[in-house]
Amino acid sequence: MRVVAAVITQNGRILACRRAPGRAAAGKWEFPGGKVDPDESPEAALAREIQEELGVEVEIGALLHRASTLVGNTVIDLSCFQAWPTGELPHRSTDHDELRWVPVNELRALDWAEPDIPAVEALSAG
């Protein structure tokens, strides 16, 4: 499954989102994003997913990290892109029960969803 996520930065902090109860990986933290449709580029999918999920517009930057993780019987191919809000900051989500701005050096303290862990490790390493 091809998935994209946004590493949204603001004032030296990164947006982490906690999966809401009743969702897959409920209670785990992740970078916001979602699935890439067959007819979309990863960047277009990410801009669409952030608009749908967080209700904000973002500028998509460079690919920061890509890794594949086996979760159950599904391989999750997660591409994480740098992103910046172009207007208001996100304050709600359709998929998450908490949004938190986290300094890079505190990312590892959160309980991350499995597919996001390689990106968290890469970001934390500098």
TrEMBL record:
Its cofactor is Mg(2+). Residues 1-124 form the Nudix hydrolase domain. It comes from the Bacteria. Its EC number is 3.6.1.55. Keywords: DNA damage, DNA repair, DNA replication, Hydrolase, Magnesium, Metal-binding, Mutator protein. GO terms for molecular function: hydrolase activity. Gene3D superfamilies: Nucleoside Triphosphate Pyrophosphohydrolase. InterPro entries: MutT-like, Nudix_hydrolase, NUDIX_hydrolase-like_dom_sf, NUDIX_hydrolase_CS, NUDIX_hydrolase_dom. It catalyses: 8-oxo-GTP + H2O = 8-oxo-GMP + diphosphate + H(+); 8-oxo-dGTP + H2O = 8-oxo-dGMP + diphosphate + H(+). It is an enzyme of class 3 (hydrolase). The keyword Hydrolase applies. Belongs to the Nudix hydrolase family. This is 8-oxo-dGTP diphosphatase.
